[in-house]
Amino acid sequence: MRKIRVGIIGSGGIAAGHLRAYQAMDNVEIAAAADIVPGKARQFLDEAGLHDATAFEDHRKLLELELDGVSICTPNVSHYGTTIDALQAGKKVLLEKPMSVTLEEAVHMVQVSKDTGLMLSVGFQPRYDPNTKLIRDVVQGGKLGKVYYVEVGGGRRRGMPGGTFIRKELAGAGAMADIGCYSLDFALHALGYPKPLTVSAMTSNYFGSNPAYHAEASRFDVEDFGSAFIRLEGGIVLQFKISWAMHMDTLGASMFLGTDAGLKVTPYGEGPWSGVWDGQVGSMTLFHDMMGQHTHTPIPRIQHSLNVFEEKVKDFVRAIREDEPAPIPAEEILYNQAIIDGILRSAAINKEVDIDLPSHL
Ligand SMILES: NC(=O)c1ccc[n+]([C@@H]2O[C@H](COP(=O)([O-])OP(=O)(O)OC[C@H]3O[C@@H](n4cnc5c(N)ncnc54)[C@H](O)[C@@H]3O)[C@@H](O)[C@H]2O)c1
């Protein structure tokens, strides 16, 4: 079987996850890596024993190679430029989340993916937890009746990153771009990605900007908390909340309310960095009536030993090999980005805003 040749753009923290996942596959060759920091891509490849792979500082040089696909693992602000360059150079793309910094960028990325006919997949690994698929089946399989209200989000009591994540110029947004996009993907994926129509939101940064809570408070210029009321097509309301830090243990369970039943779900894991939808599903409970009685039924969690991060990279390689569409299509994630954009716009003016998307996308 021919080896799939890939390159990795950005050689930081998450790039190592992509590298390990590619290395775990027999039929993949990591041909190159690029990082704007001189020497970083070389060190990244050498530490993994990839002495024959080529290192670049400029990702456009990497894109001149014969490659089947690239992983884009740069800070959020570089997702747009590197993705457009990769697609225009004829490469299929696995892009780290969030999709982009602005909605305008996301729209153009989808357009270029369509124009070039090349896959653009966005890396939301929680989708590879079989329990996420189970929830989608429950929600879309009609068990709940008509779903009219969804509450999703997650909160860390204290779990604020630093570095590139807390600067608007690099990350575009804070908790929203880091973990909020996962919550949105979790709910919207379960619902079949209905189109968002309006958003009314607030954001704050009382913790990140306070030296008592964050060692890099003077650099911190993004939101550490956000809450939004989002109208989706099909008469569904999505109540969303996300927190990097708060004086509370949890923002509560997520829930899907339907006319026939309700589904309550919680994320897996515990500790200061848990409580958000960036990993796996913890518990699932169905609330329904049986013979006129209020009943609730725990849905057994599907036990598995999958590494969901590896699964997402594997699925990208499978889609390349089988010439299949993007496993997590940018056309869907465009709606995720549109909501984040709406939240930031609404919060800035303290009013509900419309979400306008090009009608052809
Ligand atoms: N899916 C996940 O679980 C997960 C986890 C963490 C981060 N992420 C995402 O991955 C991305 C990177 O995060 P990270 O934690 O690895 O950051 P990082 O800062 O550790 O690494 C980013 C690297 O990209 C390099 N870089 C910046 N601009 C570049 C460019 N134009 N060309 C080539 N290299 C460039 C930087 O020098 C740095 O080495 C972010 O978008 C983040 O949201 C995803």
Topology:
Layout: E1 4-9, H1 13-23, E2 28-34, H2 40-47, E3 54-56, H3 59-62, E4 69-72, H4 79-88, E5 92-96, H5 103-116, E6 120-123, H6 130-140, E7 147-155, H7 168-171, H8 175-191, E8 196-204, E9 225-232, E10 236-243, E11 254-258, E12 262-267, E13 281-290, E14 293-299, H9 308-321, H10 330-349, E15 353-354
Parallel strand pairs: 1-2, 1-4, 2-3, 4-5, 5-6, 7-10
Antiparallel strand pairs: 7-11, 8-9, 8-15, 9-10, 11-12, 12-13, 13-14
Helix pairs in contact: 1-9, 4-5, 5-10, 6-8, 8-10
Bound molecules: nicotinamide-adenine-dinucleotide (NAD).
The site of nicotinamide-adenine-dinucleotide has 25 residues, from helix 1.
Question: Can you tell me about this structure?
Answer:
This is Gfo/Idh/MocA family protein. Residues 134-253 form the GFO/IDH/MocA-like oxidoreductase domain. Residues 4-124 form the Gfo/Idh/MocA-like oxidoreductase N-terminal domain. It comes from Paenibacillus chungangensis. The protein has helices at residues 13-23, 40-47, 59-62, 79-88, 103-116, 130-140, 168-171, 175-191, 308-321, 330-349, and strands at 4-9, 28-34, 54-56, 69-72, 92-96, 120-123, 147-155, 196-204, 225-232, 236-243, 254-258, 262-267, 281-290, 293-299, 353-354. By secondary structure, the protein is α/β, with parallel strands linked by helices. The chain folds into two domains: 4-125 and 308-328, 3-Layer(aba) Sandwich (Rossmann fold); 127-305 and 338-354, 2-Layer Sandwich (Dihydrodipicolinate Reductase, domain 2), CATH 3.30.360.10. The strands form two sheets. Strands 14-13-12-11-7-10-9-8-15 form a nine-stranded mixed beta sheet, covered by helices on one side. A hairpin with a 3-residue loop joins β11 and β12 (262-267). α4 (79-88) runs parallel beside α5. The site of nicotinamide-adenine-dinucleotide has 25 residues, from α1.
